[in-house]
TrEMBL record, chains A, B, C:
Residues 412-613 form the Beta-galactosidase trimerisation domain. CDD domains: A4_beta-galactosidase_middle_domain (cd03143). Residues 29-399 form the Glycoside hydrolase family 42 N-terminal domain. One of its GO terms (cellular component) is beta-galactosidase complex. This is Beta-galactosidase. It is an enzyme of class 3 (hydrolase). Residues 622-677 form the Beta-galactosidase C-terminal domain. It comes from Plantibacter flavus.
Length: 679, 679, 679
């Protein structure tokens, strides 16, 4: 059945909603308000030509819907909703709260965020409002309710798209109203001010609080703020934004209980403030925005990590790629366009990893406004253009893949644990090295495994680990309560664990766990370090395995572990770089440095071999292979990310061409094959 | 006759004024107020020794002339004016408004500019006042009137020098008084708020305005502002400064109708806010400040471009180099001193290109104040110094060149179009690549032609093109209304056009011209691009001409044009890099990338050859050759910018040495020859 | 006798105080308030194990001692003072004013500093209060008096440690209260506003003042401020902080006249505002904080310079290293840990150069707060750690060296003059090159001499020079009144002087001394430059000595001097790089550029040879050799900073091992020998 199940935390029980499209959703953000009305029929005709079945509509349109305080002009939106419906295009209708109208900003300048220096944001951008502003919320919920009442039963309506990228331009406000909300949040979290003092270690520098009212957001100070305060402010900010989302959701549920609700995440936005694993529980379907960084030579790998992570927070359910780009964006220094076939590969790589739809920002390129040079499906050159033709061909591809909709990505045997909260902790304080980031090692490990054809799930650290053979914990700076015990059980149960450096250093209050590093995991790993030796970026160290390493060294004592690899030469000669503690058939490895690509691939190959994990399929390196499994069918996505032909030992019908392959399939450079496999 | 003609836009008709000096003006900014009065006679004696006949006097002296509100102390200025007159030194008298007195800043702190974050500028610098401040203007015009009344008939007075580098430290204020002035300016420009909404495309992000009073300057916002607003704010700021200038001018005209008026421009100051082509119409004689950048290996070429551009906005009339430096400045990171002969070459290069005078900032080096390490004619070491001796020798050279005064630079056959407004548009928004600048390609093309001995005029795009054989349009991002039609006519008339990438992309409202790039010029060029491919700085691409290219690629379709050069290899293999559309004897080339120096020289050589344009004179590369033409005489400037002797096929009397050359002249490395040619 | 002599400027006469420890002081900052009270006995036991005899206690503890306005809770401090005393650990008790309590910051936000943009510092850091705040001072002196009254006679109390690193986070406030204090300071310094105008050359830009009330701190301005104002603001700020220290001192002297008083300096903190040579006269014993920069390959040399400079401002008396680190700090980008033996070498290098104690920040590593990753004696891993074991071994070493306490470093024959005020002048204005710093050449010269085994004193320029054979004046931008005459006398007396470029350029008002560079010293040196030629960082120039040079060239005329080295080739060919004016047996050299290491070593070798200065001892390069001399004994410190064994021609008993060496001693790589020499 063409439905999906929501387990959103405001529903009493899991509930089915119709899926938003027939088959995979395809389309983009559509801003008809930027164009004369005579262009609209051409838009709808082109959408049909391109296979577009879904648009995100109304994002940023508040100022054109409520043209003065309480004065609504729905006419244009009525007309385009009808036109789209007639054209067979479904609508994810955005509540328009991502851009307050000019009249509201002028009547209530106090709704915007204030930076740490005390400067209030002025009009001219988007978002900018503080999630803690009661005045803003009053105005916003009024327009949301009015919109829900007007369009709740419109036949084109498929999904509510709450606001847009909440927090992208309005995270972290330092004004007094936010400060008061922060104080209330702290009171709820810590219970007593003494508990807060204890959690933050506020005896440091004598910053003892005697009332919650004394706490302020981390404003411009003479030196670094308390890491506990910083981390709690990040948590609070995520919660304040989420609370705002929930307020919109409550209005929508009230008026339109049968329409599913989401908001677009940006899971790879660093340093983002959102604890998206928590947010995922608040939406009916996880929707993500993803943009590649042109200067990143490994952008395909970063995309794959992003998609696996999105699926991870969606608890393995299918999800929606609600924004990506056809070509160049406009906010990087030099905005690289995409190469031949790259738009198609990017799209299908998301679908392979569980997306049940792929939408672009944007349908038609703006000629004005600050995104006038952002790419689109219909570029400035119009439909007579390579991009439009490619997008239409892609639309046709997605129609061919319609039956994939609703299938699930085969669960992997290898999991990488990644927590946004740990990333927040790592940046909330003055740590041994600014060169240690929360994403480098997770993405590097993910890429090494993907290159080896091994499937990986990227999971929040509170996910169940039972079904996995290998668990990787790279740079998980903050160790959540109970994780060590769960990892112990995993290893004791025969699982294979690899923990990377700078993991398990602090607890949930961002305090260092004393007694030797990595405080949380040293028993699990059978090792103990007494000192960190961060390395300068240019330093290259040799290991006795033949690999090289850098960025990080520590003085590891292998108390209850075997040393697998040691540093070779220099001040660190003989120190352990990789250790293993074997527990029955399980194992717990520690990686005390940052390896070069080949060294990391070799290490992971050993772990995977220990665990007996096989690749998704036997295939040439360069061929990205992912399998989705549905009712009685499985779909093997083979995406050739290399510049030479690659083969895989697989067979079935290529849904994109209809050609049947038996036993072996060859994929041309840059091309994609999707096999419906005989099972 | 020793006069010049002003066509300033406040005069009913063109009018003659006496030129400010006998022959070429020579001297510098003179600040006697910084020195004990006993130094003054030595100053005047040294001026005579150095051939100085003109000084800029009184710049920044307000605080010493009006020592308290309405209390004037003219004594010292009276005395030095008399002393200079007795010494035969003419005075460009500055209205002292470039530095408000401390008492005024304290009585009216609200006169200063406010930055985009809302921080008001404090005392301690210069300028800093907002051109939209009514209070400042009231005080300023009072002192200007008082000064005009006192010195209007002083025999030393030659020229009014209004304030100083208007906008250099007081462009772009974001305060409310400026905001109100901006709103009035917008109302005048756009007529109705609906027209403004249309021009800016304010439907984007729902930034719909319902009253001009809702518009604010582009203050600190959550993301980039609307490009139309940004561009209009640049236009407004230029106009606000110009309006201020005009207010001073009105006072001066009223009191001293027979004294010409100017203000010093900084035409190469990027990102400058001034639309100097418009400003040029407001002064009686164009005066420019020019400083080379020590770290620029092509600084001589940049200087030549600056001088040709200054002449261009002066509509070919002679102009005044009113500030440059004898040696190092003090505001660059490492302030490079000039090399042997460089001060002389720099000076004579300006004169060659139409300057009828050359003045230094400054006469005598300050020992105190924030410019204490800026070079001068009389350095800290005093007159017994290389710099003073070189400056005196240069003064003598300029006396030898006196008859050049009033002649005009021979009109070139090649024009480069350059608009400040286009530069403003390019920086007003988030564009495909931050590496695309408005000056790189214009200066590179100018240098390539200068190296080839071909004369170039640098013109505002609204200049008449009839007299030119070649017109170059490099990176003219904003296409003014009507330019495409004028270029069509130029080509149809047998002209040779070369348009460079990133030209004609937006219209006068900074909106993209849709339908394919370059929107404004694609018909003229017979080509159409549907996508831009900005390249990272380090990328080098090969062309089938043997040249290399970078920074920019686009997917060009040669619809009505021949492909001359193609990309060779890689993703862009076979794509057009240079095209030509031939129209009768005319041609229209498009350059879709940024060429290496040799490639650019080759391309321009072909264009010039097509057009039959000859060099100024047959000469060795390295010899900069410019011709000025006067009544019955012509003057060929030959400046050897190389480190080896260079010869030119030219003859006449070298005005600098009196030596007669017949048929061929050799110029020593770094030396200059100025031939009065037999015509 | 175990005492030391204070000559603090508030004592009527020199006076003896007991030294703070038996033998050398050893320990660290101790923050028991961060730990549960049950940890304290373990702390004291570990201190005994580590040889710790002294702690800095109570720094930052205000908020835990005065928990609300006027409400004191002394209990915990009483208990730990008693416990430390019982454990034989002496206390340097800090007045807790370095971190105002939260309640005080909330009741009086106006006590904090305001930056140049007008932004007031919020709570969350440390220091942050303005030294000119009367309100802060009232609260601070109250808690200081209360603490002095409570603990003044406690047997553990050894020394008052006033606040902490005064000025580190609260130099330069731009608020109005500070402005008024600045005006009063200026009135006192200049006497009349006309004298101020003259000193600053305020005629520049017409910044004429008619009342002291018109002067403001150098707030956000449109361009660079007047260098005279900037320098006076630096002087004022140093004095304001010093005045605050003196206010605390007055309270302490009043209550506890028998307890010596100090505050911890940071003499290498650039750009620091403190004129520490003046501050040194205000303390009973000079105490310094020193941290090496991990990325500096010459950090051992920088440490040696710091220690010699600390002794220099202490007028040769012994001093206290009151903070350094056992290992990594947490405020550099990548916080390098120390290598094998480095903590020991660093510590003993300070002791060798006159420190009578060495203390670490900190005793036990914090688990919370913004310094949670700063190293300590007891690291996160606890006492079972390399760092603790090394620190305990070092404690044992210091016990072995106890008899060194009270001895003095042998006076050197070579002095480097270094003034903080000159450094302040160099950064207070827009100078020829941002690449010229006040520390590069002094440290380079110091290192070249140290490498050659030659002892160096680093002195304020007003120190007596009679006892020296060689005086070096590198980059002494500001020439204090009378210094030229004193250097003349030094040379006339047979001394050997070397002045480096960018010295003697400005006078005490930061005005350029005209007449040719270096204005203050050109007669002394017999040379005169008329122009500076700063060089870009990447430029390498050849000299005819074979050395290379860079960064600086000037056009030197050797009027009364011999040219020793010239530039070779290029624009500067033949120009003097090194000159000498010989006066009887004395000499005055000028170095007009920045030499490479070998060239500088060669030049200094010549100067030292001329002066007949011998190394401390004949030894291999790489062996740092310093001699301390006490009553009837001398101690030769030999620190091997190299990676190979080094020998010295010296003998005596190695106090660290008890081994007797006769005639020659070999020191292993990285090791230290301290010989008690037979005299």
């Amino acid at each position: 059945m063409n439905t999906f199940t929501s387990t959103a935390d405001d529903l009493g029980a899991p509930r089915e909603f119709p899926w938003i499209a027939d088959g995979l959703a395809y389309g983009g953000d559509y801003s008809p308000e930027q164009w004369p009305e005579e262009v609209w029929p051409e838009d709808v005709a082109l959408m049909r030509e391109a296979g577009v079945n879904t648009v995100n509509l109304g994002v940023f349109s508040w100022g054109l819907l409520e043209v003065a305080d309480g004065v609504f002009e729905w006419g244009w939106l009525d007309r385009i909703m009808d036109l789209l419906h007639e054209g067979g295009v479904g609508v994810n209708l955005a509540t328009p709260t991502a851009a307050p109208p000019i009249w509201l900003l002028q009547a209530h300048p106090e709704i915007t965020t204030v930076d740490a220096m005390g400067v209030r944001v002025s009009q001219g951008g988007r978002l900018a409002w503080s999630p803690s502003s009661a005045t803003f919320r009053r105005y916003a919920l009024r327009v949301v309710r009015a919109m829900a009442e007007r369009y709740g039963s419109h036949p084109a309506l498929r999904l509510w798209h709450v606001s847009n990228e909440l927090g992208n331009e309005n995270a972290r406000s330092y004004d007094d109203e936010t400060g008061a909300a922060f104080q209330r949040w702290l009171a709820e979290r810590h219970g007593s001010v003494e508990a807060l003092n204890q959690a933050w270690g506020s005896a440091f520098w004598g910053h003892h609080y005697t009332a919650f009212e004394q706490v302020q957001p981390p404003r411009f100070a003479s030196t670094g703020h308390n890491p506990g305060l910083l981390l709690d402010f990040e948590r609070f900010t995520s919660d304040a934004l989420l609370g705002y989302y929930e307020a919109e959701r409550a209005v929508l549920r009230d008026v339109t209980p049968d329409i599913p609700i989401t908001t677009n995440f940006m899971v790879m936005n660093e340093p983002g403030v959102h604890d998206y694993a928590r947010w995922a529980k608040a939406v009916d379907v996880v929707a993500n925005d993803h943009y590649t960084i042109g200067a990143d030579p490994h952008r395909a790998g970063e995309l794959a990590f992003s998609a696996d992570r999105t699926r991870g927070i969606a608890a393995g359910e299918s999800w929606l790629l609600i924004e990506h780009s056809t070509a160049a964006v406009n906010w990087q220094g030099v905005n690289r366009a995409k190469g031949p076939g790259e738009m198609r590969r990017d799209t299908l790589a998301h679908v392979a990893r569980g997306a049940d739809g792929a939408m672009f920002f944007q349908w038609r390129a703006s000629t004005a406004g600050s995104e006038q040079f952002h790419s689109s499906i219909v570029p400035h050159a119009g439909a007579d253009s390579t991009i439009f033709r490619d997008a239409a061909a892609l639309g046709s591809d997605l129609v061919s893949l319609a039956r994939v909709r609703g299938s699930r990505v085969e669960r992997a045997k290898v999991a990488i644990l990644y927590d946004q909260l740990s990333a927040a902790a790592l940046r909330s304080g003055r740590n041994p090295s600014n060169d240690v980031t929360s994403t480098r090692e997770p993405i590097a490990m993910h890429r090494a495994l993907t290159d080896a054809g091994v499937a990986v799930d990227v999971l929040p650290s509170d996910a169940a680990l039972d079904a996995y053979a290998v668990v990787l914990v790279p740079t998980l700076f903050l160790a959540p309560d109970g994780l060590a015990e769960r990892l112990d059980a995993f290893v004791a149960g025969g699982g294979h664990l690899l923990v990377g450096y700078s993991s398990g250093i602090v607890d949930e209050t961002n305090r260092v766990i004393p007694g030797g590093y990595p405080g949380a995991f040293r028993e699990t790993l059978g090792i103990r370090s007494d000192e960190h030796f961060p390395q300068f970026a240019e330093t290259v160290l040799r290991l006795d395995s033949g690999a090289t390493a850098g960025r990080w060294v520590e003085r590891v004592e292998a108390r209850d572990a075997e040393v697998l690899v040691r540093f070779d030469g220099g001040d660190f000669h003989g120190w352990p770089a990789v250790t293993v503690r074997r527990v029955g058939s399980g194992s717990a490895r520690y990686l005390a440095t940052s390896l070069d690509d080949a060294g990391l691939a070799q290490l992971l190959a050993e772990v995977v071999a220990d665990a007996g994990v096989a690749p998704v399929v036997v295939r040439d390196r360069g061929l990205d292979a992912v399998r989705r499994v549905g009712d009685g069918a499985s779909y093997l996505f083979l995406i050739n990310q290399s510049d030479r032909p690659c083969t895989a030992e697989a067979g079935g019908v290529d849904l994109l061409t209809g050609v049947t392959h038996t036993g072996r399939v060859t994929v041309e450079p840059g091309a994609v094959v999707v096999l419906e496999e005989a099972r």
